[in-house]
């Protein structure tokens, strides 16, 4: 167990960022600084973003924004590792050569706030009636706030969905509406000796925590309760044990090594009856290159099942937009955000199958036509019930996930979870004391 009391280094924040996407592209598509220095004539507004379907869709529309502000725009689409490396270099040097930053509110935003790298958007979002900050769903909106300041605006959201085989569910009592029903149906469906599994999901220590979070909430627990560790509570223990039984007894061997990349193909190839993971990956199960014909024809989508505390899935902003505090073009950077995350653009992009964060857009049936109807309803229901975080809200997110994930692995392996959870609870409690001290330093 680490006992270091040193705050996270600015130079090391890149290692705290996890994730992945493919490819990198830059498109060059320039207004006045908000005061002080004036950029050279023709200076472009520079945007750094993850290479994601949202970014690609916005990039195709940048000409419209250029005409609106009379300035060129340069938008770089990068992998997660490239984005982390670039932020590391630019922000440590107080660089002015990036204006709009695509960030994850639940992963790196806390550390960026601690290092004072993000501009405070509170007055901008609250004093701009046309932007309608109250129109954003509660959970993603609350996730955008760190230490009482709005530091980002959500543009892409994500929830867990229950993927299931319609052809199998018919013989298993129908679509599970509760976690008890899911476990019972998964047990009945599993024939592990023949390579047939009832349930598949993430089991890798840190990587599984985000998906396990919805099981935790639905058992009435949370990662942090009243500022202290919540993972030793009876509710958390029950959630650990439940997930351990579900995946360990009805899932594939080697489940504790499974991240998204290993778990998804098990369902896609027709080897599991049920699977819980992000709704954002739904298109993979409709792709002939990924999924067998039997699964493509029979895949169903359902809301997250109810546990002892009801159905409490996460509903998070997977990607958000912030402004570099060192930018000389903060006014135009805000104009970009209000354009890209405004009602009109959000409606356009959600109509193309990219789930956004605005309540009014989710209430418009036309914006959901791109999604399979059953999935659209599951997403709507999950969003209405959603909790705004899927991991502990701390500075050192990677370390926290590693601690929280240890009892999860023990449960899947069929070990006695109680002693492991007690140790992890004590370690996480000590970690939170250090992490809070770092926030105040």
From TrEMBL:
<dbReference type="InterPro" id="IPR006059">
    <property type="entry name" value="SBP"/>
</dbReference>
<dbReference type="InterPro" id="IPR006311">
    <property type="entry name" value="TAT_signal"/>
</dbReference>
<protein>
    <submittedName>
        <fullName>Sugar ABC transporter substrate-binding protein</fullName>
    </submittedName>
</protein>
<dbReference type="InterPro" id="IPR050490">
    <property type="entry name" value="Bact_solute-bd_prot1"/>
</dbReference>
<dbReference type="Pfam" id="PF01547">
    <property type="entry name" value="SBP_bac_1"/>
</dbReference>
